[in-house]
Amino acid sequence: MPRNRFQDIMQHLRFDDRSTRSDRAKTDKRKTTILGTVNKIRREIPQSARYKDRSEFTTQVFSTTAATLTVYAAKRKKTVYILSRMHSVVRTDNTTKRKPNTVTLHLTTKCGVDVMDQMVREYTVHRGTRRWPVAVFYNMIDMAALNAHVLYQACTGTQERRVDFLVELAKELANCRIAGKKARKEQLLQTQPSTPSPGKRATCQVKHKCKNNHATVRRVHCYRYTCGKCRLQIPWQCQDCE
Question: What's the pLDDT at 208?
Answer without folding.
Answer: 66
